[in-house]
Amino acid sequence: MTERLDLTIKNGTVVLGTGQYKVSVGIKGGKIAALAPDEFLPPAKETIDAKGLHVLPGIVDSESHPGCYVPFRYDMTTESRAAACAGITTWGIQAPSTRLGTEPFQEVVSAKDVVSFKNCFNSAVEIIENVSMVDCYLTYMLETDEQANEIPYYAEEHGVTSYKLYLQTRGMKGMRADEDSNWPSRRAGLGTGIDDGTVYLVMEHVAHLGYPAICHIHPENWEIARIFEERLRKAGRTDFGAWTDRSPDFLEAQHVHAYSYLARQTPGHVRLYLQHATTKLTFDEIAKARAEGLELYAQTGPAWLWLEPQFGWRINVPLRRRDNIEALWVALADGTVDVVGSDHVVGWEPTSYEEMYNPNIWSCRTGFSRVEMMLPALLSEGVNKGRLSIERVVQVACENPAKTSGIWGRKG
Known about the structure:
TIM Barrel, eight-stranded parallel sheet
């Protein structure tokens, strides 16, 4: 007799990237065991009737930052529950070495706090295994040459194949914590900043590993953004739109252009992954880089698909205006942008409205649950408004993030 399934989901419409199917889902041991008409499945201990409903694969959220501002264990305990409630079954956690359970926790870090990921891998795994409500994989946010040169070890011993370069920290290199103005990065656990030498080392090592190793970048030229910020402050701008104007479109596109070129110069051509692709200028640069032979993937997030500057949330890269939002939906539908990731970050205590909100954007502190807005934004703003098919939602939120992170076949 065929072994019983743990759960069957029947009478629903299963949505995959290739289409919609009237089949049942059989689950055994926490994994999907079969997709087949109900009459071909063995009996199950439990059955869910999904009549009239769509059944989607679990979402693979390729960018989340639990532990960004508070201890990793604290955030994983609460935020992984939020992720599970939002339909995420796999979380791509991106963090520097200071934010993976390293003790003692430093609210604002300096260069001396930045260590090898050898020092924090075990603590990260222990915390994930003990408190997380979702499966996880790690993307290391690298800062130093030492970390870059340890990539072969991280891949072999830790199984980590995705590495992120937070390019907004260029310009911090060599500065003391008390003399630079890039305090948000130090509050988020980045203590040294990077230069192009570290960037190139990372790209070399990742290219040498080959598939599925991939290099993520946060493209946003802070070195120029600080000039715009100085001018806006002097002009007396305190409105929410000033945060967008301090980091205009070309600062994102310029980094995409520059680092796509650098990626093509590395032996073997590193696979490149752009986070927060949000502007029409960026989409042009993506097309150029692909035309010149670079294997390049682009991600966006729910905040940039929905919110405009007047909503008053500070986020990097900043919220964009309506023309870029509409262009982003087109880019997501036509394949220019491949993935949607939440970029989930929540604020630090105290988190009351009164403590966090300020009508002066330079004094406003925000932290909101981006993971819980991910699927609602895709369905309500995308599918229900005719901008995306539901099959495309599955591609960008389930299948493509699994493929780009090397876990396709087990997830997505």
